[in-house]
Amino acid sequence: MPNDSLPDLAVRMEPLPYEARLEQRPLSQVDLVVMHCTELPDLATARAYGERVLYDATGTGNSGHFYIDRDGSVHRYVSPHYVAHHTRGYNPRAVGIELVNAGRYPDWLDSRRQAMDEAYPDVQIAALIALLRELQIEIPSLRCIAGHEDLDTGEVEASDDAALRVPRKRDPGPLFPWARVLDAISLQRLDVGCS
Ligand SMILES: [Zn+2]
Question: Most CB within 10 Å of its CB: which of 36, 47, 90, 132?
Answer without folding.
Answer: 36
